[in-house]
Write the C-alpha cells for this entry.
Amino acid sequence: MNTSNRTTSFFLFFLVICFIILSTSITTTKAAPIPKKSKDDDNDNNKQSLISANIGAVGPLDVGASATINSDNDVNTSGGVLLVLLVGFNSHNVQAKSATGERVLVLLDDEADKALYSQFFKTLEDRKYTFSYKTASDPKVDLLAFNERAFDHVINFAPKTKNYDNKVNPAAFIDFVNRGGNILLAASSGLSETIRDFAREFDIEFDDRDTSVIDHFNYDVSDSDGKHTLLVLDDKKGGFTNNSMILSQETLEGPPILYKGIGHKIGTVPLLTRVAWITSNTAYSYETKEDQIADQDPFILGSDISLVSALQARNNARVTFVGSLELFQDSSLNSPVQKINSKESHPKSGNQAFVDDLTKWTFQEKGVLKVTARRHHLEGEEEPLETYRIKDNIVYSIEISEYTNEKWQPFNGTDVQLEVIMLDPYIRRTLTPLEIQPQNHHNSRIFESHLQLPDVYGVFTFKVNYKRPGYSYIIDMTTVAVRPFRHNEYPRFILAAYPYYAGAASMSVGFLVFSTVWIFNKDRSATKEDKKNN
C-alpha cells in the first residue's frame, strides 16, 4: 500500500472515530420554542434563504448550515461536523486542472446546439470542469454574483445571437476579463454585430457577414459543394505558432486540422498572438452566396488571414478568438482528412488535439507562473535590510513556480532579469537559475544574482518584470532605501586625491622652509649701519 492509500485510510478511520465519539458524548439540548411568525417575517426569511443559496452556489460551504434540527426540536451537531469534513475531503479530490477555477459558463445560440459539441464538452468534464449552459439571450444569465465573478471561464458559442442580454453584452465581457476571467469565443460566417464590437476591443476585425475563408487548392476532398471552404491546415508550411505553451509539439506533428469559418485581421496590439493563420497565397476571404456579384476586392488575402488569435491581458486573463464553430463540433473532431490532389490521408483529424491545447492554455492549465518568495540581503548575511549603503554587495533571489501537469513545478526559464530602478534602471542583470536539490522536494526554482549597489543614494526598486508569450506575466517589486556613507565610513585617503594631498603637503613644507629662512636670515645692511652709528 502506497503513502497516498495509507493517508486516505487513516483519514477515513479518523472520521469514523470522530462520528462515534460525537454521537455518544454530545448531549442534545432542548431548543427554544419557536414563536409564531408573521407574513413579513416569512418574506424576510425567504429572502435570506435565497441569498444563502446564491452564496453557496458561488462561494464556500456555509458551515453554519451544517447543524440539523430534529423533529422534536433537538439540535444535533455531530452529523453536521461529519458532513463538513466529508465535503472538504471530497472537494479536494475533484479539484479542476485549471489554476484559476473550474466554473464554466457556456453560451449557445440555441439549447439544442449543445448536442453538436458533446465530445468537446465531455473532454472538459473529464478535466473536472463544471458547466452552466445558457442561451445568450437568457435574461437570467449573469457573469457576476454579489459583485464577484460567478464563473471562472466563459465559452461563447453564440455568434449568431443579435440581442444579447445586458448582463452578457460586450461591456460585461470586458468587465469579466478585467476581473480575471477567461473567455473562449468561436465565430461563424453569420457573426453578429455584438461579437464584432467585443472583438474590436482587442484590435481584432472580423470579415463581413456571410463571408468565409476560401482556398481552391488546399481544401478537403469531402468538400463537394464547390465552394472550397473546408480547409486543410497542417504545419508543413507553417501557419501555426511555435509557442510550446499554446500548441504542443505533438499537435503540430499530428494530423492536419479541418477549418471552416470566417477570417479576421489583427491590429498592432502587442499582447495579441496569432495561433493559426493562412500561409497559402491562393486563399482569400469572400462571400459564398451563389448569387453574389463580385463587385469589390476581398477584405483580406493570403497570409493576412488570421484564423485563431489569442490575447493575454495585463492582469493575466486570457481571451481566445476562433473563427470556426465547426472546429469544435463532433463531426470535425472525428472526421477523416485528405487534402485535394494528395494521396496522404488520415483516419481522424487533429482537431481534438488542437482544441485540447487551446482550452488548456485559455483556461490556464499551463503557462501559469507565480512568485513564491523573494529575498535580498548583504553578502555573507541572511536577514534583509530596509536600508542599504551605496556600493554595498548584496544578494537578490526570487523563487518562481510554473503550473503544468496539474501541479506547481520549478520554472525552467533562463532569461529572468532583475532591474534596480530609481526613475531609470541603474542595473539590469540576468538572474542565474540554481539547481534543485532532490532531497528538498521544492516546487519552485531559485533565481539569484550577486550585485553591487550603485554609487547613488535614494529610494530604489528591485523589479522583476517577466513577460514572455504564452506565459502569465510576473511583475514583482520590492522597495529599499540606499543611504550615503556616514562621515566616519569614508576611507581615510582616496587614491584620486593624492595630487591634492601632495600639493597641500608641498605648500606646508615650502611655507616652513620660507619661514625658517626668513627668521634666521640676518639683514647685513642693517648691521653695517648699526656699527657706523656706534
About this structure: Residues 3-25 form the longest helix (23 residues).
